[in-house]
Specification:
The structure is a homodimer. Helix content of chain A is about 70%, strand content about 0%.
Chain lengths: ~325, ~325
């Protein structure tokens, strides 16, 4: 495990990295720090705009401003860059909406009726810090706010972009809904304590985390005015890193330092959750994650140096330590 | 209490009804039956389109297709008619999205951590019929689907209407969120067992039910291409009937027949909930509801005969028996 987030983009397997020179000198640590600052500042502002302080707003703020990786919003911003768009207000708001949806899903998944987790991002979960009713409603409110924020993106150039914005809302809602993330949580819960194979596990993850990671990248590309070919290539990239992310998460759950991860190691085994290391073995899981990242990088080959952040993020996903 | 839904629109107080002739012969029973059929058929289809049957889809279907009044979607359709628009596919989809949001809020409000209700619309609540985790997720999924449906409305007339559709999404999300319906549920829960006055009660209802009823009417007017003056007049109408609806609900909770209402009478008193009959007395509450309806009808005076359904619905709200 390579500590920290810095990555040299030197691949350890046979697949060659396209454009490796372009991305080779890219400073991901600085990039992530800058984008996370922008995202956090914008999210603070969006919560502030919700009006006077209240228990509900406190709970939304508490969960949203926890120390998250901000993977989804960063992917959105990086995808917009890949198709040649800067981090405009529309792109940034879309990115924040994605993090709100991710956070709501964590709050609800942590509830006693679901995964019954007491620790998240190194702090008490929302229903422990507040109470169960407030946690349910704070999750609902973050999901709702996400769509308000998305609908409030008024791209400056009128008609054509308005249509794209409706497509962004559709894309994200579809990925977050009963054929995406929520179905993933249903399947994840019903698989607990059961024997499932690697195919079924891959499907659970495609729903639970893959769909929203793909939507993050696609919505960034749409906000940035990407062509159909670009959107397709970025979807392929996202499907691969989405799965790689989950495989890496399972590996971290076995090997990770609970201090750094902000949650206990070995909880998956305790909960009798099916994991890649459990099904494929630890070494094969690591190789699988690397192969997925190599596939992701292949699909970036139609892009120029603007895709450097996406290259680096793909690498980071399997090399991170939390 | 006038049984059934038929209303003659004969007012019992001093305020004169504008355009009463135009609305006098309007057959609300037939209108509601027709619109409810359209709404239910469209909602069935929208759930079917969500893909193969699953426990999650079953739970969404179960709660959505319960015997609801369909007040919000009917108001949306009637508001579109008031500004001269037929029930186009866009109007109908928007109407269905409103009912989905209403249904999700009922599922979550009924949860053990909130109002802990076991009966809703005459049947076991979602978490009783399924389980708590499924109920939380089915609510989440209906809320998410609502926004997917709204974003999928592609009004036929291009640019100008596309812009309106983003405003529809904003309007509904804002009313459903932490400055609207969800804050209302927070306040409602925290007021239980406490002494509050009529002003505080009115505020709770303005958040909890008023905001979404107003959004239903406004979104219908926007979908129908209403002018700013028309939208303003309809907002005023909606604020009055929204409050009237809640006052009438409190009266029904005291006087209603549990067989017809689908839930027990007297539950508010049992839960120590503040109600209008409790604060103002029963007779004064009835007069208050009638005055609110009269105000609502006044704000319809700028409309022609196309507003007949809105007249009739305002009357129905205080005369219904469930």
């Amino acid at each position: 495990m390579i500590p920290g987030e810095k990555t040299s983009l030197i691949m350890t397997q046979s697949n060659q990295i396209p454009h490796s020179d372009a991305a080779g000198s890219f400073d991901l640590t600085a990039y992530l720090a800058e984008k996370r600052r922008m995202i956090d500042r914008q999210m603070e502002q969006l919560i502030d705009e919700q009006g006077p302080p209240s228990r509900l707003h406190d709970a939304m703020h508490y969960s949203l401003m926890g120390k998250g990786k901000r993977l989804r919003p960063v992917l959105c911003i990086a995808a917009a860059e890949a198709v040649g768009e800067k981090t405009t207000p529309s792109v940034l708001r879309t990115a924040c909406a994605l993090e709100m949806i991710h956070t709501y899903s964590l709050i609800h998944d942590d509830l006693p009726a679901m995964d019954n987790d007491e620790l998240r991002r190194g702090r008490p979960t929302c229903h422990i810090r507040f109470d169960e009713a407030t946690a349910i409603l704070a999750g609902d409110a973050l999901l709702t706010l996400a769509f308000e924020v998305l609908a409030g993106c008024r791209p400056e150039n009128g008609g054509e972009k308005q249509l794209k914005q409706l497509r962004v809302v559709s894309t994200i809602a579809s990925a977050a809904g009963s054929q995406g993330m929520i179905e993933g949580q249903m399947r994840d819960m019903s698989a607990q304590g059961k024997q499932i194979d690697a195919g079924a596990l891959k499907q659970i993850h495609a729903f639970k985390t893959g769909a929203m990671i793909e939507a993050s990248v696609v919505s960034g590309a749409l906000c940035g005015g990407g062509t159909d070919d670009q959107v397709d290539a970025l979807s392929e990239y996202a499907r691969n890193i989405g799965l790689a992310f989950q495989v890496a998460d399972d590996i971290l759950n076995v090997e990770g330092d609970p201090e750094i991860m902000g949650k206990s190691a070995g909880t998956d085994r305790m909960l009798q959750k099916a994991t890649y290391p459990g099904l494929l073995g630890l070494e094969e899981s690591k190789q699988y994650a690397k192969d997925l990242v190599a596939n992701a990088l292949q699909s970036l080959k139609i892009f120029d140096t603007e895709a450097a952040p996406l290259y680096a993020i793909a690498q980071y996903i399997v090399e991170r330590n939390r």
